[in-house]
Structure to design on (394 residues):
């Protein structure tokens, strides 16, 4: 029995890593003009209004993936479809190297990219050519709120108390938080105000493919608390009057590239709902299978799937705020993906004296330049422009 057990543990990693992760890109979509003529089929009225305000027309990226393509790939024995992205016209698949490579034989497949970049060959690339979501603003002004203790420090470092005094507390804005779970948000007293005012508009667990987003992990809860928690004269979030969607995209039990694909899928959902800001304290560089790791050169803003998705999210009209990472004290201290994307706001960390925390990841960014200082006190964001002026993200 001991020999059998030993054999199992020797072979188990080989079995696990024989299953490769890859993205299959398609070369066309179906019924494009229909979706251009009927945009409410793919975007809410709020999303369309945001596009109109920002002069962002609908385009090819807004059209759903051809479902026949997905069904055909799903029917291939040994292939699992793990996620999909209309923006990138791609699906995330899992299977053996040989079976994934066989997908190139379909004439609608533009290319296949393995997460293990050493497996990639030159691929053919083909050029590709009324439920309305409403958010009611409060007409009644609340009295000025004031935090105390450590919470007051983080607000004051952001100069957020000034905006709060002017009643700029996020009213009318919708924020999507993409994280590992939101345990306790449904019953914690710190989020009672949020629940009572119906400011949680919904959520979804993309990892489990169900609605259990109030579970699994409390990391998202901690992140949400910096924006939305409220305890009178004590704990005051930076955007307590904003509304929120809570999306689980991170699987805390593994580190796998599929989490990047789930993040992009959630970002697409946020776009369709008319979200204004994506906030995500997640980042990727190392995985359980080292063959999938993002090298320093890969973190160039255009290589990682999640970084490409974050850039498109910005181009759809959403502000994307992500964590720089916690690898500052390691041998690979640089920002992960999607913090390397060109248009995201990457947030690092400082202590109460504004000194960079040792664990906080560092640049440079994809274009080789250091970004303006973007830091946080613990989990609390501080953004400074190139002149050193603090900016409060409301």
């Amino acid at each position: 029995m001991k020999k059998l057990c030993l054999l199992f543990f020797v072979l188990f990693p080989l079995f696990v890593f024989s299953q490769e992760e890859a993205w299959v890109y398609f070369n066309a979509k179906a019924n494009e003009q229909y979706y251009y003529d009927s945009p409410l089929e793919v975007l809410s009225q709020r999303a369309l209004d945001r596009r109109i305000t920002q002069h962002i027309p609908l385009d090819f990226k807004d059209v759903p993936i051809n479902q026949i393509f997905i069904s055909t790939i799903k029917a291939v024995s040994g292939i699992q479809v793990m996620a999909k992205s209309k923006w990138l016209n791609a699906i995330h698949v899992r299977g053996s190297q040989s079976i994934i490579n066989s997908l190139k034989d379909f004439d609608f497949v533009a290319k296949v990219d393995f997460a293990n970049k050493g497996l990639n060959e030159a691929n053919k690339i083909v050029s590709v050519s009324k439920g309305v979501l409403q958010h009611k603003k409060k007409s009644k002004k609340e009295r000025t709120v004031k935090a105390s203790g450590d919470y007051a420090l983080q607000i004051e470092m952001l100069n957020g108390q000034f905006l709060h005094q002017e009643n700029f507390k996020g009213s009318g804005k919708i924020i999507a938080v993409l994280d590992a779970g939101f345990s306790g948000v449904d019953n914690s007293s710190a989020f009672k105000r949020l629940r009572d005012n119906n400011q949680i508009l919904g959520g979804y667990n993309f990892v489990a493919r169900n609605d259990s987003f109030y579970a699994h992990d409390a990391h998202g809860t901690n992140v949400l608390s910096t924006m939305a928690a409220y305890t009178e004269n004590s704990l005051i979030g930076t955007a307590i009057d904003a509304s929120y969607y809570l999306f689980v995209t991170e699987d805390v039990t593994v580190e796998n590239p599929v989490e990047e694909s789930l993040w992009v899928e959630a970002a697409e959902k946020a776009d369709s709902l008319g979200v204004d800001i994506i906030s995500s304290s997640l980042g990727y560089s190392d995985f359980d299978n080292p063959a999938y790791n993002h090298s320093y050169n890969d973190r160039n803003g255009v290589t990682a799937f999640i970084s490409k998705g974050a850039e498109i999210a910005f181009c759809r009209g959403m502000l994307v705020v992500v964590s720089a990472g916690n690898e500052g004290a390691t041998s690979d201290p640089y920002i992960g993906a999607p913090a390397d994307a060109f248009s995201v706001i990457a947030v690092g960390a400082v202590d109460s004296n504004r000194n960079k925390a040792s664990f906080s990841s560092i640049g440079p960014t994809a274009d080789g330049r250091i970004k303006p200082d973007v830091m946080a006190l613990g989990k609390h964001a501080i953004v400074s422009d190139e002149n050193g002026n603090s900016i409060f993200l409301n």
User: Anything to note?
Assistant: Residues 80 and 243 are 35 Å apart (CA to CA). The two ends are 61 Å apart (CA to CA). Residues 1-16, 123-148, 369-394 have pLDDT under 50 and may be disordered. Residues 2-18 form the longest helix (17 residues).
